[in-house]
C-alpha cells in the first residue's frame, strides 16, 4: 500500500500519481486519508517519494496545505521532485537522518507539431514559476532564488535543507538499533545530478521506469492504472493467458486513443480520455471537437490579439462545446467593436452607429472567416 493511515499518522511511499507500472499515491487517496484523520486534528505525514507526476504533486500539496490541523511532514528516505513539492505543505518539515531532498524544474514529453511543443513549453514554464512560489512560501527565499535552485536540480542533505529554509529541523538520532528508512525504489538515473549513492542503488537493484517514461516531475500525461473490469466481464478470466489478453486489449485501446489525439493535434487529452474509459469513436469525436476549437481560437486571435494564447486549452479543459466557444468568442468581438464604436477619438464610419452596428459588423467579419455565429 502506498498510503497507510494509523491514527493521526499517514505514510506516503512510492511515486506521486497513479502510474500503472509502479506503486504510487494520488491526490484522491491523500484527501481520503486526511478525512480519516479528521480535518481539525493534527497530523504527521511520513513521506518517502522519488517524485512522479508534477500536477498530481501540486494537487496533493494543496490538499495537505488546506488541512486545518497542524501538519508535520517527516521526510524518510527521499523527497525528490514532486515529492519535495508535497513536503512544502507541512507547517513543520522534518528531515530524518540520512534522508535527502531534491527540487528541480518540471519536465514533459510532447508528440506533435511545433505549436504543440510551444504549448508544452508555456505549460512547463507556468508550472515552474508556480512551484517556485510554493518553495518560496515555505523557505522564506524569493521565488527567483527558488527558481534558480530548481534549474540547478538541487540535492540537499538534512542540514542543507534546514539551512536554506526548505525544512525546519533534522530528526533526532534513533537509539533503537532499527535500520534507517530505505529510500523509495526509483530510477534515480533519470536525474541529471542525483547523488551517486542513489544512482548506484538504482543500478544495483535495476530500478527502472517504464519505457517512454519522462522524468519524475513530468508534466506529460501519464497513463493510469488499468481499472478493474466489472465482475460480469471478468468471469472466467482467471488464467494467466486470459489476464494477459485483457491487459493487451487495454493497452491496445490506450494506444489507439493516444494515436487519435496525436493525429488531431491534441495529445494532452490522451490521459483524460483513457481515464474516462471512452471508446475509440468517442475519443475521436472529442479530439475532433478539440481540434475545431483550436482552429476557431486561432482564427479569433488573428482578429483580436488580446485573446490569450492558451484560450483553446482553457475552453477544452472546461468541457466547452464548439458552439459555446464560438459564442464566447463572438461576445468578446462584439464587446471590442462596441468599445471602438463609442470611442470619441475614433470617428465612426458613415452609416455606422453604436452596438447594433458593431454586432452586424462582427457577424460579417466572422462569416468571412468561416466562424459565423447564428442568432
Automatic annotation (TrEMBL):
Belongs to the peptidase S14 family. Residues 210-241, 338-375 are annotated as: Disordered. PANTHER family: ATP-DEPENDENT CLP PROTEASE PROTEOLYTIC SUBUNIT. Keywords: Cytoplasm, Hydrolase, Protease, Serine protease. It comes from Hansschlegelia zhihuaiae. This is ATP-dependent Clp protease proteolytic subunit. One of its GO terms (cellular component) is endopeptidase Clp complex. The keyword Hydrolase applies. Coiled coil: none annotated. GO terms for molecular function: ATP-dependent peptidase activity; ATPase binding; serine-type endopeptidase activity.
Amino acid at each position: 500500500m502506498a498510503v497507510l493511515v494509523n491514527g493521526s499518522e499517514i505514510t506516503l511511499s512510492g511515486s506521486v500519481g497513479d502510474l500503472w507500472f509502479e506503486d504510487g499515491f494520488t491526490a484522491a487517496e491523500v484527501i481520503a486519508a486526511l478525512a480519516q484523520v479528521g480535518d481539525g486534528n493534527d497530523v504527521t505525514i511520513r513521506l518517502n517519494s522519488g517524485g512522479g507526476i508534477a500536477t498530481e504533486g501540486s494537487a496533493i500539496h494543496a490538499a495537505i496545505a488546506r488541512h486545518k490541523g497542524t501538519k508535520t511532514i517527516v521526510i524518510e528516505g527521499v523527497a525528490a521532485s514532486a515529492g519535495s513539492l508535497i513536503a512544502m505543505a507541512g507547517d513543520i518539515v522534518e528531515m530524518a537522518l540520512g534522508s535527502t531532498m531534491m527540487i528541480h524544474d518540471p519536465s514533459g514529453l510532447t508528440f506533435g507539431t511545433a505549436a504543440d511543443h510551444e504549448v508544452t513549453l508555456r505549460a512547463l514554464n507556468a508550472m515552474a514559476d508556480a512551484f517556485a512560489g510554493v518553495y518560496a512560501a515555505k523557505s522564506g527565499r524569493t521565488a527567483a532564488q527558488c527558481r534558480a535552485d530548481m534549474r540547478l536540480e538541487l540535492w540537499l542533505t538534512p542540514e542543507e535543507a534546514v539551512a536554506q529554509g526548505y525544512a525546519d529541523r533534522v530528526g533526532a538520532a534513533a537509539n533503537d538499533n532499527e535500520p534507517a528508512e530505505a529510500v523509495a525504489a526509483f530510477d534515480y538515473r533519470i536525474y541529471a545530478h542525483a547523488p551517486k549513492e542513489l544512482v548506484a542503488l538504482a543500478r544495483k537493484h535495476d530500478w527502472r521506469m517504464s519505457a517512454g517514461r519522462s522524468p519524475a516531475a513530468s508534466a506529460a500525461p501519464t497513463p493510469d492504472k488499468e481499472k478493474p473490469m466489472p465482475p460480469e466481464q471478468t468471469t472466467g478470466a482467471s488464467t494467466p493467458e486470459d489476464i494477459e489478453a485483457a491487459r493487451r486489449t487495454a493497452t491496445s485501446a490506450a494506444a489507439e486513443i493516444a494515436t487519435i489525439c496525436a493525429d488531431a493535434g491534441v495529445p494532452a487529452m490522451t490521459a483524460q480520455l483513457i481515464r474516462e474509459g471512452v471508446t475509440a469513436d468517442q475519443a475521436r469525436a472529442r479530439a475532433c471537437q478539440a481540434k475545431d476549437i483550436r482552429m476557431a481560437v486561432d482564427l479569433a486571435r488573428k482578429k483580436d490579439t488580446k485573446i490569450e494564447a492558451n484560450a483553446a486549452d482553457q475552453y477544452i479543459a472546461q468541457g466547452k462545446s464548439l458552439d459555446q466557444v464560438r459564442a464566447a468568442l463572438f461576445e468578446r468581438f462584439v464587446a471590442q467593436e462596441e468599445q471602438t464604436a463609442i470611442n470619441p477619438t475614433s470617428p465612426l464610419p458613415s452609416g455606422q452607429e453604436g452596438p447594433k452596428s458593431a454586432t452586424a459588423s462582427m457577424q460579417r467579419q466572422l462569416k468571412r472567416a468561416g466562424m459565423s455565429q447564428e442568432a
